[in-house]
Every structure is written in structure tokens, then in C-alpha cells.
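Input.
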Amino acid sequence: MRTTTSPRSTPRSTPRTARLAWRLAAVGGVAALALTGCSRGSEETTTQATATGEGSCPDVVATAQTAVDAATATDAPWDGPTTGPAAQSGKTIAYVAQTMTNPGVASVAAGVQEAAAEIGWDVRVLDGQGDQAGIQNAFGQALALNPAGIVVGGFDPKSTQSQMDQAVAAGIPVIGWHAVATPGPSTDPALFTNVTTKVEDVAKISAQYIIAQSNGTAGVVVFTDDSIPFAAGKAQMIEDELGTCSSVTVLNKSNIPIPDAGTRTPQEFSSLASRLGDEWTHSVAINDLYFDNAATPLRAAGKQGNGAPYNVGAGDGSEAAFQRIASAQYQAATVPEPLNQEGWQIVDEFNRAFAGEQASGYVPAIHITDADNVGSTTSWDPAGYREAYAGIWGR
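Output.
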């Protein structure tokens, strides 16, 4: 078994490097073992690692570290819109949620409600409860309200195509949040715009974080929900980026539907810990909620809260995730979306639609929260957007 003296490939001696080296030293020699085979979990191993003395991708590690350094900055100025139409009055918005148990969906809904209060609109939140029948029922309720606009909160609009068609026929603009894979307007499905960070950027930086921290020697488990095309695509992008370093191993892909995560993840973590042992150094999940119930099974397996496996959330940056990161309890980092800010953006985009203008084209920047920059915060809430949007609306 090989050993390493540092989880970094870069020679710099920054405070972040020193702290991360201390936290991750336990990865040591276990991360770069070559796998000659693998047991089956939810899915089989998809990538193999090399068994060299160190990670075999120093250039990839160096590039990843540069990207991570930029993404952990917390002082970036507001880079969104500063001009647009004044507030349109007397509007009601229906927010159709995939499930309000998804912290990202719920936090964006709260942002929509906060922004609507500022601009003077009403909001109805309708919970799809995480299954197709519930989402269709919630969308039907939204149409019955005859609102000025409808939000598709975290589900594929094509799964409710007939109701989307009704909205279009009624002249109701629909705005998505994580409704399709790319930000901006969409003709199929018909969305005035889709509010999200770029999924490829989120996937890439989460994988780069793992590559950089492990010095290119990680053994990774990926958690995803393949029933959601957006989530399945994100997970594949994460795997693809991890694959740019030949000495990083994807040990297992665990496909667990988001609504089932609370009940299924404890057993999954227990099984993975038993089967993979010290080869499992990192996890990455398409949503932080996959780590909500990781502590008990990992503790029972003898894992420390600040040790391997180092859990990384590739969205959305829940309050519970921030608390776990701050207390070093079974989560090392998250790639949070500015969820409240995105709620404000949704309201601003509707205001542009109601005024007959085009979508703003704004895409939120990528950010990483880890133990070095989490502080006492419980969400990623950049400065400046409230004042900017209120100024646009004349409030």
C-alpha cells in the first residue's frame, strides 16, 4: 500500500492548503489502491484507478486546485442585472414544487415568496410530493388558479406536457427552476426562462474539488436520482470529470430517488462502508440531502465526522449541509446554489415577461462552501441582489 505525505499536488503553503492537508491526511495510502474487481451495490463500478505511488494526473490536479481556489471566494460583487422594467402590479404566481422535502426546491420557493412580498405580488406554493401523480395534481391546481405565471420547481416539464400545453394556450408564462439542463429560455419545453446555475459547471467543480483534495487518488461513491433527467445528467458529468484523472476511481453509483433518500440512505451508507472499507475516501451527491442521514451508519462503521469518506454535495446547499460542514460532521463541502437569490431572479424574470420584455439572461456564478469559508452562515446568500432587484422594480 502506498502512502502520501500531502493530499495536495501544489507546493503553495496557503492557510487553506495547510488546513485541508491536516483534515485530509487520513486519506493517506488507501485512496489509490487499484481495484481488481468490485462488488455490486446499487450499480457496478464504472472506473478503475492506477496503483502508482501518487496520483497519475498532476496537471489535472493543478488545474482543479486553481478552479477550487476561485470558487471558494466569498467577496465577489453582484454581477446580475441592474436594469429592467418597473414592477408590474397585481400579479399572482403559482409555484409547483417537485417536493417540498427537497431543500433546494423549498428554499427557492421561500426566495420567490420573499421577492413577491417586495414587489407586491401573491404566491401560492403547491407541493407535488415527489411523485408523478402528485406533481400533475399540483400543476392542475395551479392552472385552476388562473395565475399570472407558473413556476416549474425542480421537475421535468415534459412529464406534465398536457398541462404545460394548457398553460401555453392560456397565455400563462412558465418559468423553470432546474426544469431543464441549461439556463435561459426554452422552446421545447416552452419556458420563458429556466433559472439555474450551469449544471456542467456544478458537476465539474464538485469533481475538481475531490480531485484537488485527494491529490488525484480518490475512491468515490456517486449518489444520484436517475428518475430525474437533470439529476442523471449531472451525475454523469461528475463521473466524466472524475474520469479526467486516471488515478481516481468511481467505486459505486448509488441510484436512490430523492423522495426515498431519507429511508434508504442509512442502509446504503452502512452497506458501502462494509463492502468498500478504506477504499471509499469521498462521496459526491447530486443533492446534499443524501448526507442528511449519513452520520449514524458512518459512525457505526467507525468513521470520524472529519474523516473519510469526505462527502461533497453538488447542490443545492441546504441549511443542514452548512451545519454539517461547520461542525465537521460527515460533510466536507457543498456546491451551493444561491437559492434565495434564484427565487428573486424568478420574480424578476416574470416581471420582464409581464412587461413584454426578454429574459435577463443572467446565470448565477459557481461557488464552493467548505470548512474554510462557511463561517456561521447556513446558506450561500451573495450580497447585492436584493438591492439590485428592488432598484430595478422601483421599490
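Residues 149 and 291 are 34 Å apart (CA to CA).
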